[in-house]
Amino acid sequence: MPIQITLLGTGSPLPSPDRAGPATLVRAGAATLLVDCGRGVIMRMAAAGVVPVGLTAVLLTHLHSDHITDLNDVITTHWVMSPAPVALRVIGPPGTQRVVDGMMEMLALDQSYRIEHHADLSGRPAVEVSEVEPGAVLDLAGASVTVHQTDHRPVAPTVGYRVEHEGAAAALAGDTVPCAGLDALCSGADLYVQTVIRADLVRAIPNPRLQDILDYHSTVEQAAQTAARAGVGTLVLTHYVPPLVPGDEDQWRALAAAHFSGPIVIGPDLTTVSAG
Ligand SMILES: [Zn+2]
Ligand SMILES: [Zn+2]
Q: Mean pLDDT across the stretch 34-58?
């Protein structure tokens, strides 16, 4: 099939015993793309049958900790599992190089231990960072990836990625409120993956810091409205805030179905959807 998506992690910053942090795997022909690197990403990749060496590239939507926290694990595991030196490609908004440089500094001692211990490990991990702006078009192992602007202010810049392959299109939005850039990202896509929050449940939790998240995420309803406006095929929801309690899927789905008549996917980690 042209494009297959696996929700590696459907969680959020809020700890959950069974939902890893935000991360989505996209397979499109020869391309295997990892969008964001939340908590536990390597474990979920292993469950999906992918090791870091098998990645074409890592794509970061933004530099919030819940979306990048285990990038350091991807970097290290890619390095120690590569039989020969090979670069890990990391694509993200401006600021990505600074994050990677910081992770490399954090890992410097570990890297020196391993280089000293393993005769065949000669150099530090090679991480090839590309900082991209909206409008950029990339060819990643035959898949076309375009970069679109999203709106998660005050977090900026933030981007989403549209992956196209053999006539199918998947829109991978990170955290964002509805905006023109998001509509362009999703326009006519077969799959639209959106991180969401349940505004009604968040409002019921008397915690000021939690209330702050209401103004810079799409709610379930807003994601469905974007899906309808952009004419997407299937709406895929992830990054459930608060953590979705198993059994409540239909309740979440009903909120979206009031605004979008197409298929709506909500599920546990490793839920897989295909397009085309
Ligand atoms: Zn965020
Ligand atoms: Zn997030």
A: 98
- Considering every ligand atom shown, identify the ligand nearest to the alpha carbon of residue 22 and give its number: 2
Instruction: Choose, from 66, 70, 151, 190, the residue flagged as catalytic.
Output: 66
CA of 22 to the centre of ligand 1 (A): 10
CA of 132 to the centre of ligand 1 (A): 18
Counting ligands in written order, the one closest to the CA of 216 is 1
Q: What pLDDT is attached to residue 73?
A: 98
Q: Tell how far the Cα of 67 is from the centroid of ligand 2, in angstroms.
A: 6
Active site residue 66: yes
pTM of the model: 0.97
Q: What is the pLDDT of residues 56-66, one digit of tens each?
A: 999 999 999 99
Nearest ligand, CA 151: 1
Of 77 and 216, more confident: 77
Tokens of 59: 């794509």
**Residues 193/226, Cβ–Cβ less than 8 Å:** no
In 66-153, the DSSP E strands lie at 88-92, 127-131, 137-140, 143-149
Distance between CA 10 and CA 21 in Å, rounded? 6
Task: Inform me whether the pLDDT recorded for 119 exceeds 90.
Answer: no
